[in-house]
Amino acid sequence: MKLVPPLRPLWFFLTLFLLSSLTGILLAQETLRIQVRRGDSLSYLSFKTYGMYNREIADILKRENPQIKEIDLIFAGQFLNFPTPESLKKKLAERSAKPLSPAGTQEVQEGRPSPPVVPTPGPLSETQVRAQNGVITFLEGGVQVKKSGETQWVSARPNMILSEKDQIRVPPQAKAELILDNQSVLRLSGNTVLTLQKLEEEKATRKENTRVEMSLGRLWLKMGKLFNPASRCDVRTPTVIAGVQGTIYQLSVAGDQSTTIQVYEGAVRVYNPFPQAQPPDAGGPTQVEKPREVAGPKEVGGPKPVSREEWTQIVLHQYQQIKVTGKGVPQPAPFDPARERTNEWVRWNEERDADFTPPARPR
After folding, report:
1. Which of 43, 104, 179, 340 could form a disulfide with 159 if both were Cys (CB 3.0 to 4.6 A apart)?
2. Which of 257, 179, 249 is CA-nearest to residue 219?
3. What is the number of alpha carbons within 13 Å of residue 63 lying toward its C-beta?
4. Where are the domain boundaries for CATH 3.10.350.10 in the chain?
5. Contact of 308 with 327, CB cutoff 8 Å
6. How far apart are the first and last CA of the chain?
7. Whose CA is closest to 265, among 286, 285, 244?
8. Looking at domain 21-97, does it have CATH number 3.10.350.10?
């Protein structure tokens, strides 16, 4: 009978222990342990960690957190596993490299004909655009959404992805936050209705065109950093078009359709949505007149109210505000930010702005 040396089993179990410990260390190096705070959602934490959120990332995070039964419903104090940015990049690359499920093979096996093969489209031309999205990252109250082409409003939920022509309706005493693909943040107060009219990016130039329309309510907007300086982000109301870039401001539309804009950072160009009509002969042949005497200089009158049709654009700078009605346009006036911060809505927005510091979004 051959005796087994007593140290051999010990070395065997010690080797297993070391291997499992090393595996645990490697996994820990590829995973971030994040504690949920009040006001967090999966999509909000994804933007803060990776600078982006989409359906692929949502699926990966669900797999990383099997202990969470409903990923759209997380609570303060819970811990979530997030792959490190480097690990997420690898996982996304692996998912894109995987072939699609063999649905056609299955249909042949079941005696059904395979669908016709759709040719793969060629490279996109420089004039083509990429559709962008917005994500609901915060909800409070019975917020509703109406998707493009639908007729019914449905209850909104955290992490819901919205696209062009989708609408969001915020009832009284409720709030909602949207983060766009370009990391711009839109927060809606109660009694607000907003339409994501255009969300697109030109693939060749990375020029982004974002336009939202708001018929009623209050909006706080913090612009993300845009790749192309020629990009535009416009907010259209019944009385103005506010064009912004690298700006924090709030905009309110009252029941009489008057619009009030307050700029907290940067500058906002306020455009007239009702430009003067061109004269009837605009673009026609030019008539050459006979020489005539030109009148001398005349005294110019002092400032006067500007009618809705006469003004073209007004630039608002930090801590300036303006109220535009259907009757006319007053001059920009300063406002006291300290006084405004006594308002809970303003304080909440500034706290969220300070907390939202995402990494640079991938190009």
Report:
1. 43
2. 249
3. 9
4. 21-97
5. yes
6. 69
7. 244
8. yes
Query: In this structure, what token pair is assigned to residue 257?
Result: 């359709």
CATH number of this structure's domain 129-276+310-355, picked from the four choices 3.90.600.10, 2.60.120.1440, 1.20.120.160, 1.20.1740.10: 2.60.120.1440
How buried is 147 (Cβ within 10 angstroms: 0-12 exposed, 13-18 middle, 19+ buried)? middle
Q: How many CB atoms lie within 10 A of CB 201?
A: 21
**Cα–Cα distance for residue pair 71/58, rounded to 1 Å:** 9
| Residue extent(s) of CATH 2.60.120.1440 domains in the chain | 129-276+310-355
Cβ pair 137, 175 in contact under 8 A: no
Tell which residue, 118, 113, 91, has the closest CA to residue 103. Answer: 113
- pLDDT digit string (tens) for the chain, length 363 residues: 555 555 555 555 555 555 444 444 444 568 999 999 999 999 999 999 999 999 999 999 999 999 998 989 999 999 999 999 999 999 999 888 776 444 433 433 334 444 444 444 444 444 577 788 999 999 999 999 999 999 999 999 999 999 999 999 999 999 999 999 999 999 999 999 999 999 999 888 888 999 999 999 999 999 988 878 888 899 999 988 998 766 899 999 999 889 999 999 999 999 877 665 444 444 444 454 455 554 545 443 444 455 544 567 889 999 999 998 877 677 899 999 999 999 999 999 999 999 999 998 876
Q: pTM of this prediction?
A: 0.77
Contact 91, 30 (CB under 8 A): no
CA distances from 210 to 231, 248, 254 (A): 8, 16, 23
**Tell me, what amino acid is at 203?**
K
Residues 182 and 133: beta-carbon distance below 8 Å = no
Compute the Cα dihedral for 198, 234, 147, 362 and give only its sign: positive
Instruction: Single out the residue of 237, 272, 270, 234 nearest to residue 255, CA to CA.
Output: 237
Report helix, strand or coil for 325. coil
53: closest CA among 196, 156, 183, 197?
A: 183
